Amino acid sequence: MQDRGVKILKMESESLLIVVSSLVGALGIKEIWSIIKQKIDIGAKKEEREESVYAQQIEVLTNKIQQLETKIELLIEENIQLRIKVAKMSERLVTNAKKRVQSKRKNDERN
Whole-prediction pTM value? Predict the structure, then answer.
């Protein structure tokens, strides 16, 4: 049984050898090599394009992240400034309310 499998393999390898040798005879080694090289080059160019696209996408996303970080920093600063203004206004309101209460008490004491 194994002997039969070996014979089939020998036939397949012989037929493969015949096909390869006929291709080499018909086209020549240089032609076959140029075809193989073209296939390899096409594959390499495709990989380079994909890598280039990924690199561009990464660069665009990195720029967007930097812009967002800058915007966040500006908004944080603006928020701090607004809190300071609110605190000052609140302090003024309390001060004015105290003055009004004091002046109202003085007016009531006079009457």
Answer: 0.47
User: What pLDDT score was predicted for residue 69?
Assistant: 95
Q: Cα–Cα distance between 33 and 39 in angstroms, integer?
A: 10
1 has a pLDDT exceeding 50: no
CA distance 57 to 79: 32
**77: which 2 tokens?**
């600063």
Give me Rg for the CA atoms of the chain. 43
Distances in Å between the Cα of 93 and the Cα atoms of 81, 84, 104 are 18, 14, 16
Q: What is the pLDDT of residues 65-110, one digit of tens each?
A: 999 999 999 999 999 999 999 999 999 999 998 888 888 877 777 7
Domain ranges of the chain: 2-110
To the nearest 10°, the Cα dihedral for 82, 88, 89, 92?
A: 180
Q: What crossing angle do the helices spanning 29-110 and 2-27 adopt, rounded to 10°?
A: 90
pLDDT tens digits for range 40-56: 877 777 777 778 888 88
